[in-house]
Structures are given as C-alpha cells and as structure tokens.
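Module 6 notes. Inverse folding takes a fixed backbone as the condition and produces residue identities as the prediction. Think of it as a translation problem where the source language is geometry and the target language is the twenty amino acids. Below is one complete input and output pair. Work through it position by position during the lab.
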C-alpha cells in the first residue's frame, strides 16, 4: 500500500505542478497574447470587408449598445469596423474601450480614428506637431495589442484646401494651412509608431485631392495605408480608373497605387444614402464593391455607415446608413430594419469572403 501511494504521489505531483503552471496568470496572459497576435496577422493577410460604424447611433450611451451594433456587423458578414473616438476626456475614451472590447469578443478588427478634439480643427491647434504626437502616443499606448490600425484625421488634406480648388496639385492648398496640417499629421503618425511599433497608420483623401499627398510624402509624412473616400450620384460610375475631372479623364486607381501603400476604400456609398431611393443606394454599394474586387488593387472596402445617425436627423446626411433608425412613441430613436443596401453588401461579402489581397 505504501509503495502504491508513493507511485501515485510521484505521478500526481508533477501533473499538479504542470496544471498550476498552465493555469497560472502569466501563462494565461501569454496564451491570450499569442491568440491576439494570430488574430491580427489573419486580419492583415485577408481582404478587409469592413463597415464604418457610429457605435452609439441613437445617442443612447448604455454599455450594451456597442455590442448590439456589432452583432449587426456579424450579421452583415463584415470582419472590420472603422470608427472615431468621440473625444479625449476619460469618459469618452471609456465609451471607445467598451466598443473595442466588444469587437474583439466577436473577432472583429478595428480601425480607430482620431482628431485633435471633436470641436476643434487641425488648423486651430497650437503647437501642431506636439499636439499630434501626444494624442497619437496616448491612443496607441492605451489600445496597444487590441488595435493595430489607426486612422489619423479624416481626409486630412481637406483642412488646407483652398475653396473650390480641385486638390490635384499643391497649388490647391493654402501654404500656411498645409504646413499646419502636415505638422499635426506627422506628429500623430510619429506618436502612434513610438507607442506601438507594429501599428499601421492610415491617412485618407477624397475626390482628386492627391496633390496634398504628393507634397506631404516628399515632406516626410509616413504611413502604411492610404484610404480613399468616394460617393456616387445618380449617374456616377465607380470605375476609379476612368474619373472625369478637370475636363479630362484621370486614372485615379493608378495614381493611388503610385504611392506604394496599402489601398483601402474607407468611405463608400451613394451621395445622400437612401434619400433618393434604397435601390440606388444598394446599386452604388454593389457596383463599387464589384469594381474594387475586379481591380485587384485594393485591400479593404468600407461603406460609410452601418446605421443612420440620430444627430443627423433632418439633414441631407440622415440616410447614409445601411440600417434605418425609427422613432419610438416617446421620441427616442431606435434601430430599425435593414435597407436594400445592407442585403446587397451582405451578398457581396458572402460571395468574396475569401478574397486574396494584392501584395
């Protein structure tokens, strides 16, 4: 009996030791870190079928709301979301914390956008490089390991463009404003990179405002992803290799490729959304996504918004989402039914779910 107990103890004690080691906090953390890195690598290696979200579209700030929004993203079939932090106060960043964590639970990747502050434009910031640097560093430090992609400002060159100028040459931009905007962008990009060397930095443009990037890249603006925002009107085509502008035809796709960055469509849709009919909005999403797939030049596609947004009610931008909002009897907004564009995009994603990306 003694001998048997000795043998059992000799076997059990190492097993207990292994179990204690395996379930120790340090080993749990290591396994979580490996799983998270695998998640990020997969996201980088596959096409980014995304959607822009307002994580609190009805202005209901309950902590359950982002999860409900993201459940709709899962239903859509998208594997990425793009959204901005609401501001730099701790409470506002706390709202973003909830959304990022809920996205990770659903294995949805996040491209997180930020600006100086919600009510202040880049051109109004004092000490723009320092301001951008501190904000980029702060955000990437906070969300390191959870977020890998950061969108720095929105259509950054538009902050410096002269009124009614097209944006395709540096002459379209006010020299003083250009320097201010460039300094803030460089600071933000540097701050993100210092905090997280693995982070990918996104800058975006729209229409033919590539003149800003022609100059900014020469002046030292560094980033990994170039996003482009594009909306179509009633008769607009979505072939970016044949853009009618400046009394001619521009191969915008070739121009964007010339920067040697990853290319994403960061905002896509019909001008004014479903205001002029759901069928037109659905057709815009389908036609544009089909072009992007066929071109083989892009790594991501993001329609502008999942939901309509309550704060835009009564404006011509109240219908940009793929899901309606509805009014309750008490006047509050509630999520409504999906539009035709939701189903159209859902079909495209399902058809090209395993789409490879250009290298």
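Target side of the pair, the amino acids:
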């Amino acid at each position: 009996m003694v001998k048997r107990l000795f043998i059992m103890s000799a076997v059990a004690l190492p097993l207990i030791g292994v179990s204690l080691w395996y379930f120790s906090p340090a080993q749990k953390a290591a396994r979580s870190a490996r799983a998270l890195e695998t998640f990020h690598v997969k996201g980088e290696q596959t096409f980014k079928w995304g959607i822009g979200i307002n994580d609190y579209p009805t202005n209901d700030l309950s902590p359950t709301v982002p999860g409900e929004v993201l459940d709709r993203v899962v239903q859509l079939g998208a594997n990425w979301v793009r959204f901005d932090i609401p501001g730099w106060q701790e409470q506002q960043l706390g709202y973003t914390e909830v959304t990022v964590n809920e996205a990770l639970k659903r294995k949805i990747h996040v491209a997180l956008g930020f600006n100086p502050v919600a009510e202040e434009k880049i051109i109004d910031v004092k000490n723009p490089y320092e301001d951008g640097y501190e904000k980029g560093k702060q955000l990437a430090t906070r969300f390191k390991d959870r977020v890998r992609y950061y969108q720095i400002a929105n259509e950054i060159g538009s902050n410096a463009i002269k009124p009614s100028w097209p944006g395709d040459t540096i002459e379209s931009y006010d020299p003083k404003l250009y320097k201010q905007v460039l300094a803030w962008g460089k600071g933000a990009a540097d701050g993100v990179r210092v905090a997280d060397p693995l982070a990918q930095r996104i800058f975006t443009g729209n229409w033919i405002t590539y003149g800003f990037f022609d100059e900014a890249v020469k002046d030292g603006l560094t980033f990994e992803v170039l996003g482009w925002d594009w909306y179509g009107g009633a008769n607009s085509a979505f072939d970016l290799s044949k853009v009618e502008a400046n009394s001619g035809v521009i191969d915008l796709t070739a121009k964007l490729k010339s920067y040697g960055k990853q290319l994403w469509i960061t905002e896509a849709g019909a001008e004014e959304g479903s205001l002029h009919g759901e069928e037109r909005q659905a057709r815009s999403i389908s036609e544009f996504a089909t072009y992007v797939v066929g071109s083989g030049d892009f790594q991501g596609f993001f329609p502008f918004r999942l939901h309509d947004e309550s704060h835009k009610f009564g404006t011509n931008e109240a219908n940009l989402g793929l899901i309606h909002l509805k009014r309750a009897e008490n006047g509050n907004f509630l999520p409504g039914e999906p539009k035709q564009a939701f189903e159209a995009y859902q079909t495209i994603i399902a058809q090209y779910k395993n789409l490879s990306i250009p290298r």
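Reference fact for the lab report: The two ends are 67 Å apart (CA to CA).
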